Amino acid sequence: MSKKVKIFVAEQYDPYFNLATENWIFNDMDTDSHVLFLWQNDETVVIGKHQNPWTECITSKMEEDGVKLARRQSGGGAVFHDLGNTNFTFMSSKDSYDKDANNKIITNALKAFGVDAFANGRNDIEVKIENEEGSRKISGSAFKVKRDRSFHHGTLLINADLSKLANYLNPNKKKLESKGIKSARARVINLAEINSKITHETLSGAIIEEFCRFYDAQAQVEVLNYDFLKSVPKVNEYYDELKDWNWLYGKTPKFNHQFEERFTWGGVEVHINSNKGIMEEVTIFSDCLHPPLIESFAETLKGVQYDAKAVEETLTKLKDEFQDHHGEVDDFTQWLISNIR
Length: 341
Hints:
Radius of gyration: 23 Å
Largest sheet: 8 strands, mixed
Helix content: 25-40%
Low-confidence stretches: none
Distance between the termini: 54 Å
Strand content: 25-35%
């Protein structure tokens, strides 16, 4: 029996545009159809809803290289996206939702290229590689359920720059304890290494074809761009929300960060308790000969965003109060910024 389907393909590579579209599909679209959305992001680290960006990412390196940070609505771990990834989203009513069916659509599409892929039961899709023990991951997924609807999205590695996984997703070894969800690392492989004919365009076409075949239905592919964003107020609203600091960093679970350094003017040991991206408690131990300066560092930082720019702006103001200690303020400020990035 045929079912109603809708198919969307994003023309933009903007992660906030694509995630805003996902939110619109999940939160606002009627559940009378099975929905497929295919999209790509420019270089972006996408973290799960309950993750800590400072423990998952090397945020300083991302800033240097112009890599965006995005936080999605679903759970799961951190992933690196570039134009070598094809991302997929399935949405359906809660009653008709079938994760296995979604995985089957993806794996059947891959069979058209001679790739024998399988779902491993841990929300990933893997392939066996000839003359290798075990298997390699080519796709990871995350899920969300809400009242009358269900949502399944994931990424397929086609020709991703796998070296950048290590550049941005292996954080510096800091004494930082987080209550957030940590990402698991797995052995991965690009699909183009298995079959060079696999591209975003060819695989998207195969997935669309298999999606329609599975549900015995046809639909016109709707291409989404910024005109679409402007024409749907709810998508525009989600877009602004997803780019906002309060969503990207302010949703971070509680964490503790401890670090120390010795300067020419004394040693410092800093303890920060942060919640929702705000430094709630700051304790500093020091043998500095100017205790009021150290006390001001700690007091001034309470309630400040755990963010390099906010910290720099806050601490620099102390120069007005401590005219004879500009060097100490600069030393401490630059050191602290380097540690929280």
